[in-house]
């Protein structure tokens, strides 16, 4: 939810913001333009932080060992469950959007 704040900017910055907001055609006022610019900047900062964290994980032997331990169980039972539920037409029930597919459902 938008919240109103007051900031102090140099006149030339305000003129620049107004000109850019009008030229963008995407926003109708300076508040919308500033919000868009800050959203884009925040996204870029968060993306850069995520990349740094992921790079750190690739160099962490403990983290890599944990990933390798979980890699051996990824997909465990999925093939068998799919085979059991699709092998016989007697066993297939109609699924609606949003159904959770579980090996424990009959």
Structure in words:
There is one protein chain. The chain has helices spanning 11-24, 30-58, 61-71, 78-87. The chain is mostly helical and 106 residues long. The protein has a domain at 11-80. The longest helix is centred in the middle third of the chain and has 29 residues, at 30-58. The radius of gyration is 26 Å and the shape is elongated. The model has no long low-confidence stretch (mean pLDDT 79).
Number of helices: 4
How large is the share of residues in beta strands?
A: under 5%
* Average pLDDT figure: 79
Q: Please mark out the parts with pLDDT under 50 across 5 or more consecutive residues, or reply none.
A: none
Which structural class should the secondary elements be placed in? mainly alpha
> Globular, elongated, flat, extended or rod-shaped: what is the shape?
elongated
Distance between the amino and carboxyl termini: 45 Å
The profile of the biggest β sheet is: none
Number of strands: 0
Rg, Å, rounded: 26 Å
Q: Summarize the amount of helix as a percent range.
A: 55-70%
Order of helices and strands: HHHH
């Amino acid at each position: 939810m938008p919240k109103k704040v007051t900031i102090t900017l140099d006149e030339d910055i305000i003129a620049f913001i107004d000109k850019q907001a009008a030229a963008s055609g995407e926003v109708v006022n300076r508040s919308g333009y500033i919000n868009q610019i800050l959203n884009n900047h925040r996204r870029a900062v968060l993306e850069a932080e995520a990349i740094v964290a992921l790079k750190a994980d690739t160099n962490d032997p403990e983290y890599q060992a944990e990933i390798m331990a979980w890699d051996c169980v990824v997909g465990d039972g999925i093939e068998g469950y799919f085979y059991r539920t699709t092998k016989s037409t007697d066993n297939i029930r109609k699924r609606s959007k949003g159904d959770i597919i579980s090996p424990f459902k009959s």
